Amino acid sequence: MNRFQMNHLFFKLLLMSGIPFGFLMGIMSFHMGDNAGAIRNGILSGLIFGTLVSYILISLHKSLSRKVVSDASMPDFNNHQVRRIVMAIPFEQAFSRCIESLKTVNRCRIILQDPDNGEIRARAGLNWKTWGDDINFKLTQETDSTVVELSSRSSARSTLVDFGKNLDNVERIRRFLHDH
What is the pTM of this model? Predict the structure, then answer.
């Protein structure tokens, strides 16, 4: 995630947390008799609260995402993770391994297995990081190998930070497919 994307995420979080909080604080100030300062109090408290929440959530998201990747590379902090894996085995064997790899993801159930189209769809269950995750495989047979397009994203498209959960999903599956 580049600096622009990180700033964009920060401002989304700021708006989504600061506006409701500021509105609530403005209403409370108005009801407590501070008619003239209600708007000022709402805006100021919304900005302070939103900034704190945004900073804390992004810091946690980055910290937990970095723990998933064991090597020194910088992880991609996006919620939608995509990997391309080339397996030097026949299509049928690769398809079976992809199904088996889903056992490495907690509370994961298969929704679709379509070997004719090379598609596998699964859903990981609810956890403290996300409202569940959609994991998809698209397998393509090449001359002497099988190419696997793997993706994982939060089931709730409104999820802004997943604390490294989808990164963890694709890394678990990738390691399983490379090791077996």
Answer: 0.81
